[in-house]
Design a protein that fits this description.
Layout lengths: L3 E6 L3 H12 L4 E7 L2 H11 L3 E4 L9
Parallel strand pairs: 1-2, 1-3
């Protein structure tokens, strides 16, 4: 059985690392990308075409 491919999106480094660690401990999941904002998320989703995206819906806007 193939693992579920996941992209993790969160603006908090701590939360991204925690989610990645928890998912990677379970062989049913494979984290294929990690993004810190929506722009990175879109690029990773287009590139990897994951099965699932975990998305922080309350991310802060990126500043220029």
């Amino acid at each position: 059985m193939k693992p579920i491919r996941i992209v993790v999106v969160d603006d908090s480094l701590t939360i991204r690392a925690m989610i990645e660690t928890l998912l990677e401990r379970d062989c049913r999941f494979e984290v294929v990308g990690i993004a810190r904002d929506g722009d990175e998320a879109i690029d990773l989703i287009r590139l990897h075409k994951p099965d699932v995206v975990t998305l922080d819906v309350a991310m802060r806007a990126r500043t220029a």
